[in-house]
Design brief:
Helices cover 33% and strands 22% of the residues. The protein is an alpha/beta fold. A nine-stranded mixed β-sheet has the order 1-2-3-5-4-6-7-8-9, sandwiched between helices. A hairpin with a 2-residue loop joins strand 2 (10-19) and strand 3. The radius of gyration is 17 Å and the shape is globular.
Length: 264
């Protein structure tokens, strides 16, 4: 299990997990303290969760795991790892490998879909999940925005209440879809949804919280309300002045919401 330096003074451990998709390498940064959280990033890559991971660990004194999904950030991806369900199985196997219990899974966007799939696997190691502006279901009259072919400024206008809060992109890039976008489509498909997911959400058995930015134009609040309505007993919270990436745009408000939910 080799360790490599990661931003913020952390080490990134590489775990090789045997799954039905073959041997899967998972690169995981860890803020190692007490109660465990598993944070799952969306199409923006691990950088879109890194700041919030540090905030969550510092304020709650918790153990926070922040993996990079295989194929994102230049990490290797097993040939058999072709869908969200297979990736969810790899993360449950990771929790088994680390012998963790009472894990809360928190996912944003694609990571929210992935968190839902992990919850549906009924692992005794997972005690709850938080879905933040998740994608993955089909909602009549409220389709997801198709970001393929859009420029970065156009995507930022859909993603942020205040686009000036969007992270600056790298100074140089290559033409065409980024490797992270290609990795995302490899898991989620061009439609970025699973027509069976909404129906399967009805058999959730653990506490689920759905958190949404009121200014999200990638997947609107009405889409989010439909997501929550599909999950028995789910709590829905709308964050004001926030778009698709609350952990980037309004991290303090998101943290406050998570702490409030934990006290209920």
């Amino acid at each position: 299990m080799p360790s490599t330096p990661a931003p913020g003074g952390l080490c990134a451990d590489v775990h090789t997990i045997e799954t039905s998709a073959g041997a899967v390498e998972l690169t995981v940064r860890a803020h190692d303290r007490t109660r465990p959280f598993l944070l799952l990033h969306g199409g923006g890559g691990v950088a879109s969760m890194a700041g919030f991971a540090g905030l969550l660990a510092e304020r709650t004194r918790s153990r926070v795991l922040l993996p990079t999904h295989p194929g994102f950030g230049g990490t290797p991806k097993a040939d058999g790892l072709t869908g969200v369900g297979a990736l969810a199985q790899a993360y449950v196997a990771l929790l088994d490998r680390l012998d963790l219990a009472d894990v809360t899974v928190i996912g944003n966007s694609f990571g929210g879909w992935l968190a839902a799939e992990i919850a549906l696997l009924d692992s005794p190691r997972v005690s709850g999940a938080v879905l933040i502006d998740a994608i993955g279901i089909e909602v009549e009259g409220h389709p997801q925005a198709d970001i393929r072919g859009l420029s970065l400024p156009e995507i930022q206008r859909l993603s942020f209440h205040d686009p000036s809060k969007a992270p600056r992109p790298p100074a140089a890039g290559t033409p065409g879809p980024s490797p992270d976008v290609q990795a995302l489509v490899g898991y989620a498909g061009p439609a970025m949804a699973d027509p069976t997911l909404a129906g399967r959400l009805g058999r959730m058995t653990i506490p689920m919280h759905v958190v949404w930015g009121e200014s999200d134009r990638i997947v609107t609040p009405d889409y989010g309300k439909a997501f929550a309505a599909a999950i028995p007993g789910a709590t829905f919270t709308l964050l004001p002045r926030t778009g698709h990436l609350p952990q980037v745009e309004s991290p303090e408000e998101l943290l406050g919401t998570l702490l409030d939910l934990g006290d209920r």
